Structures are given as C-alpha cells and as structure tokens.
Amino acid sequence: MVIRLRLARFGRKHRPVYNIVVMQARSARNSKPIEVIGTYDPIPRKPENGEDGKPFKDIQLDVSRAKYWLGVGAQPSDPVWRLLSMFGALEPRYKVAALSALNPDAAKPHPAAKDLLGKTPSEESKAVPKLFTAKKPEKVAAIDAWMKDPSVPKPPVWGEAAKAFKQSSA
C-alpha cells in the first residue's frame, strides 16, 4: 500500500479550501483520510489588522507529523511537495524552465543526442514538416534537395509524390 500526502478539497464553489491529508494512493480525493496534517487556503487575503500589507495565502501545517509520514515512506503529491518545501520539510523541486533560465546551456541538447543525419532531434523536427517525413530514400533525397536549395521544385504531397517518383524511376 502506497501512502500519499495530498490535498483534499473542501469549501464552496469558487472558494476552495484544501486539507493537507495522509491517504492511501488509490482512495478517492475526498474520502476519509488516515490523518489531517494541515490546511491550505489558496485565495489571497488581506491582513486582518487593518494595515496595508501584501495579501497572503493561509497555510497551516503540523511539520512534525509531515516529517514523520515522510520518514515512514509517504510520497507527497506535487502541490504538497511545494507546500512542504516552503516550510523547510523538503528540498524544493525545480522546473526545467526555471533551470534553463538560470543556466542557458542546460536547455541545449547534448552533443551525443545527434541522430544518423547529424542533426539533433529538435533541429530535425523544425526543418522537415510532418507531411514529408518518410522512410523511402528517394522521397527523403527529394526533400533534402528542396531544403538545401530553394530553386529546386518543391516535392509534391503524398499522392502526387508517389506518381511523380514512379514516373521518374520508370
């Protein structure tokens, strides 16, 4: 049995409030949990003391119980992982977009990822339209010639391409 830390939705329409719960992974979202370890209100609220402060989201969490369940082997869902990382119970996960902003070389494909044509998969998908991806060598040769030299006539679409190649090979 896999135990997960996840969110269970409560509240009314357009005003959600989530309980941070410990549940079995296969149980329904709002079924009875093993334990409720906190609450999360995703709607920002203004400070109640009348000050002009920045709106905040209310998060209440029993960190000791969260650490216990993580130590026992419970797996947090992605939103719960983010909430637990705010409290310092887990290391934050970084998204690929955030990493590529920090390190532009991380988004580039590895040099070993080149295929047989000598292009990376991302370059090839940009260069050749999906309509013209074929396994027959004569079609690929016609497409490559057209891609390299725009003065070469554009290869016809599939039905016309078969007729044209049959006539040229005969």
TrEMBL record:
InterPro entries attached to this UniProt entry: Ribosomal_bS16, Ribosomal_bS16_CS, Ribosomal_bS16_dom_sf
UniProt keywords, alphabetically: Ribonucleoprotein, Ribosomal protein
One Gene Ontology term of the molecular function aspect: structural constituent of ribosome
Region (Disordered): 106-129
Skewed-composition ranges (Basic and acidic residues): 112-127
Entry's Gene Ontology cellular component terms: mitochondrial small ribosomal subunit
GO biological process: one example: mitochondrial translation
HAMAP family per record: Ribosomal_bS16
Entries under PANTHER family matching the protein: 30S RIBOSOMAL PROTEIN S16 (PTHR12919), SMALL RIBOSOMAL SUBUNIT PROTEIN BS16M (PTHR12919:SF20)
Family: Belongs to the bacterial ribosomal protein bS16 family.
Protein name: Ribosomal protein S16
Organism: Ascobolus immersus RN42
